[in-house]
Amino acid sequence: MGDVRPFCGLRYNLQRITDPSTVVTPPYDVISHEERSLYYRRSPYNIIRLESGEEQPGDSPENNKYTRAAATLDDWLREGILIQDKQPAFYIVEHRFPYQDMDRGRWGLIARVRLEALEGGQIRPHERTTKEPAVDRLHLLRSCRTNLSPIIGLFRTEKGEMAALLQELSKKTPDMSATDNYGVRYCLSVVTDEAAIEQVSTFLINKVIYIADGHHRYETALRYQKEQSDAHPSHTGDESFNFVMMSLTDSHDPDLVVLPSHRLVRGLESHRIAQLEEMISPYFHMEELPPPLPAFFEPVQTWLWTPEMRGKGRTVLGLYGLHGQKFYRLRLRRNADLHSLMTEDELKLWSDLDVVLLQRVILQAALGIDTTEKEDYHLKYTNDGLEAKTRVDSGEYQLAFFLNPTPVTSVLDTADTGRRMPQKSTYFYPKTPAGLVINPVWDED
Fold this sequence. Notes:
Layout: E1 4-5, E2 10-12, H1 33-42, H2 48-51, H3 65-79, E3 82-84, E4 90-99, E5 102-114, E6 123-124, H4 131-144, E7 146-147, E8 151-155, H5 161-169, E9 176-179, E10 185-191, H6 194-204, E11 209-213, H7 215-231, E12 243-250, E13 257-259, E14 262-265, H8 270-274, H9 276-280, E15 284-289, H10 297-304, H11 307-312, E16 316-321, E17 324-332, H12 344-350, H13 354-366, H14 372-378, E18 379-382, H15 385-393, E19 399-402, H16 408-417, E20 427-429, E21 439-440
Parallel strand pairs: 6-11, 8-12
Antiparallel strand pairs: 1-5, 2-3, 4-5, 4-10, 5-12, 7-21, 8-11, 9-10, 13-20, 14-18, 14-19, 15-17, 16-17, 16-19
């Protein structure tokens, strides 16, 4: 049974921080080195100093980005930059953003969620993870003892009832609002009314929660929970370390957006590139697309998925860089025999999912990128089609593969089977930022 609870969050003191837009950032895993420097300069109180601190020459076990984050957190609490809410609350956040020439508004509920093992429980992952980011997050969690940015979780409803309820419970004048570099506005309502809390808690009590974004942070929270449980043999199960902060979203929210996660490839031997077309020809029909090439991820998606292709219901993906500055559409052949690359159960689940077909047929079988270590070395991910093309043109990368967004239904169905898609199969947009509210996992007493 799911256990979703309000909590007494740490929030920026708006009497000290008059413009919250200067202190919030995206989650750590989508911040580039250049963006990190920008956030550092934006405000001395920007959450980047906690979420993704800078390494410095001479760092040691006693003085490093994690210990500096903990010291900064202590300073901000002592100085009143951050203050803790006195009453347990649910935090409702509306993500207002432009997308495909429309203004959108996705609703999320930031709450504490009881941690569960990821095998066969009520909390289910959908994609693979790698070790390094989880280690980084564990060091930070041990030092700061806080969840700085929420994991995004989804749950099923019939008709989007929870999205409607959150909109109803939100305040006309939010308790905090901030706008990020991409024009996304986040409006936070702090809900402490006991009847409203009970209404939300009751609605969620039997819901399965699907991890949409933040698998590393969830795995980190599980490991920290075990460490703390071992260190406190008399624990009751209700300690803060038994929970993790999530932003929960209705899977039927009409403004739930998933962007494609394109693949860039580098460092391959020339014979691998030369043999690619021959290697994939039993599976894909390859056709050159005429210029002009698309500029951004939305035109890329539209260009690949022409009305003609939609009507045929065929799986398609894009390829750039194989023969100079040419763009190809790869269309799965009707008679493609995938049984040597996927099990029968996998075929039933993923036979039309381009991110899995790219992984199994092209990256692993044809290009030999078949281990996590090789993926880390050879692959980069981006949702920006223009960036992908530009980095191939510059010679930094050899190939770019363009994907369509993974359907939300595929995410949920995959998680229900206990299987996992390749890493970076989804990019839920926008991500709930760090800095709206912080969840302390130290003992309140």
